[in-house]
Design a protein that fits this description.
By secondary structure, the chain is α+β, with helices and mostly antiparallel strands. The protein has helices spanning 2-16, 30-49, 62-65, 70-75, 166-173, 185-193, 219-231, 237-256, 261-272, 294-304, 319-332, 336-339, 398-411, 429-435, 468-481, 488-505, 509-523, 529-537, 541-552, 570-576; strands spanning 18-19, 22-23, 126-129, 135-139, 145-152, 198-203, 208-215, 310-315, 362-367, 384-391, 413-415, 441-450, 455-463, 557-562.
Length: 595
């Protein structure tokens, strides 16, 4: 009977408006009542666990079946329970003509969408300047990693008052010992590995670039390491001797490599800009390795690593964060050669050479036996290499520079064997007119080296030494034909290929970093890629002919390597480029034979 008394208590609790922890509000909440009934059923179910078998507590008994249903409690008025039904908002009537409403209009009965507004300040490259003159540039790019680095207006072209090859030394000394990282490269790499980072340094004729790719959370550490490496390197005689050994081995490998591309690029620049600026060797000559010491390198750094010649650039980071990270290491800390002037030695630091490059033209020929350059058991064919170059516009002459780039794509070229379709350059002029017609030509490709004040447009070709005269004539004919009629199909193909190559390269974060750094270094700003896409699309046939005629007026530059007995005389090459068809003058004897 105790169970019966419990049931009576529960029932009285319902009528009084409260069961356990579930009160029934005066508003007559249906939900609260349902919770109460659920609690009652749970209580009754527990009674079976206690062995209670009274008929009133057994769901299978008739007594429980005669209990009033929950619906009866809702139908009968109960004291303390309001009879006001809750207000339920009826759904909107269905739209019969939903399929007839255009997508440009909002659907009736639905809330208006709220669109996100782009923040214009975060789009494009932002450039600021620190108090000491260092320019800071940033470009937003989504991702978990960022690339940060510096571009310096330095390189081999500024080595007029120093032994040639100092910039080559600095390239190898980069990311070495510093006051904060006395253990050198190993300590720096260990620090960067905490943030998944890598580092690199590349030197060219007119720019030195230091770069680090790292997770965004390691930005501050990367900026600090860059400042240490660039402004506070520690050079020791022991470390310098190791670098000299490395450079000696590198030069020996370059001279024995079956691919002489590196040597030929040195030769063509030396021929085009003889003994000045861009013609100075980028690679350290073997005779200068022993002449360069720590004092020489520190004087080079003090001369060219001036804050006003430095750009700190980052891609994939917030501009304000980059500025804040650069304040202490790049603005408030002095370079090591200013803290300790004794590192400069007894000589004074000479002013920077600001002379404009002078294109001279000329030839550099190197006789060399290339009949046995194979590194393995399979012999390689003996080849003679020749490059013929012309002065091209600088990259600051935008209209002519872009037209020259389109012309470079139109000429194209490559090796005698290449798989692929139009995207691989198989329909360029040097493939159709040269490689596909003459089976004995192993290589023919066009290059354009552009700098701030000049440039070199050249064609590199290789063949068996016995066909060298014919090869030179084929190249001169193609160079002269650049100023002739241009098929609109090949022009449009070259423009599309250049546009696609530009956009494809800019998908890479390090490439975007280098583009930002170089543009800000040379012009102070960076132009959007869409500017160049539109400029490439606007190039016409007349633009190509104009820059081609301009280049053909310059004196040719010739670089050759190999067995050169059948290389035409330089005067014959100059004469061929002034004719309408580009043919070499006929010789009934052999005055052009070289001993």
């Amino acid at each position: 009977m105790a169970a019966s008394s419990r049931l009576c208590i529960i029932q009285s609790g319902i009528l009084s408006g409260c069961v356990g922890a579930y009160p029934i509000t005066s508003a007559g909440s249906t939900t609260s009542l349902r919770r109460s009934l659920t609690a009652i059923r749970a209580f009754c179910s527990k009674s079976e666990a206690f062995g209670v078998s009274e008929p009133c507590l057994n769901d299978t008994t008739a007594g429980l079946k005669k209990r009033p249903l929950a619906s009866s409690f809702l139908q009968q008025p109960v004291a303390g329970i309001s009879q006001v039904a809750p207000q339920v908002q009826s759904p909107p009537p269905p739209i019969s003509n939903r399929t007839q409403i255009p997508l440009t209009k909002p659907l009736p009965g639905l809330p208006q969408p709220v669109y996100a507004e782009p923040v214009t300040s975060s789009i494009g490259t932002r450039v600021d300047r620190l108090q000491n003159g260092v320019r800071v540039a940033s470009e937003p790019k989504f991702g978990q990693f960022c690339t940060v680095g510096v571009a310096i207006d330095a390189g081999s072209r500024f080595e007029v008052a120093l032994p040639s090859g100092v910039s080559h030394f600095i390239d190898k000394l980069a990311f070495g010992s510093t006051p904060k990282y006395p253990n050198g490269r190993d300590a720096i790499l260990e620090e960067l590995e905490r943030y998944g980072g890598i580092c690199d340094c590349q030197g060219s004729r007119d720019t030195m670039i230091y770069g680090i790719s790292v997770e965004t959370r390691g930005l501050e550490k990367a900026v600090e390491i860059l400042a240490e490496v660039v402004l506070r390197p520690l050079l020791s005689p022991e470390y310098l001797e190791m670098i000299k050994t490395l450079l000696t081995y590198e030069l020996e490998d370059l001279n024995t490599n079956p691919n002489p591309e590196g040597l030929l690029q040195e030769y063509i620049h030396a021929a085009a800009f003889r003994d000045n600026s861009l013609g100075l060797p980028r690679l350290c000559p073997a005779e200068n390795i022993g002449k360069i010491n720590c004092d020489t390198i520190y004087r080079y750094l003090a001369q060219l690593y001036d804050p006003k010649r430095i750009v700190l650039a980052g891609v994939g980071i917030e501009h304000e964060r980059l500025l804040e990270a650069a304040q202490v290491p790049w603005n408030e800390t002095l370079p090591i050669w200013q803290e300790n002037p004794s590192l400069l030695g007894n000589e004074t630091v000479k002013p920077v050479d600001i002379s404009i490059s002078q294109y001279t033209g000329g030839e550099i020929i190197v006789e060399k036996d290339l009949s046995n350059v194979s590194l393995g058991p399979n012999p390689m064919p003996e080849l003679a290499h020749v490059i013929i170059g012309l002065e091209s516009p600088s990259h600051q002459e935008e209209s002519d520079f872009i037209a020259t780039c389109v012309l470079n794509m139109m000429m194209g070229g490559g090796g005698s064997f290449s798989a692929g379709g139009p995207g691989k350059g198989m329909y360029t002029r040097l493939y159709i007119n040269v490689l596909n017609r003459y089976h004995w030509i192993q290589h023919a490709a066009a290059y354009n080296h552009s700098y701030a004040d000049s440039g070199v447009f050249c064609v590199h070709a290789s063949c068996d030494p016995s066909h060298l005269r014919e090869l030179v004539e084929i190249v001169t004919r193609e160079l002269v034909a650049m100023a002739g009629n241009i098929n609109w199909v090949e022009l449009n193909r070259a423009k599309k290929q250049l546009q696609s190559m530009l956009l494809m390269n800019l998908e890479s974060r390090p490439v975007v970093f280098e583009d930002v750094a170089r543009q800000v270094l040379t012009s102070g700003t960076r132009k959007d890629p869409n500017f160049y896409i539109d400029a490439i699309g606007n190039v016409e046939e007349e633009d190509i002919q104009r820059v081609a005629k301009r280049m053909l007026k310059s004196k040719p530059s010739v670089a050759a390597l190999g067995t050169l007995k059948k290389l035409p005389m330089y005067s014959d090459i100059c004469e061929a480029l002034t004719t309408k068809d580009g043919r070499l003058p006929k010789r009934f004897n052999i005055p052009w034979a070289r001993n």
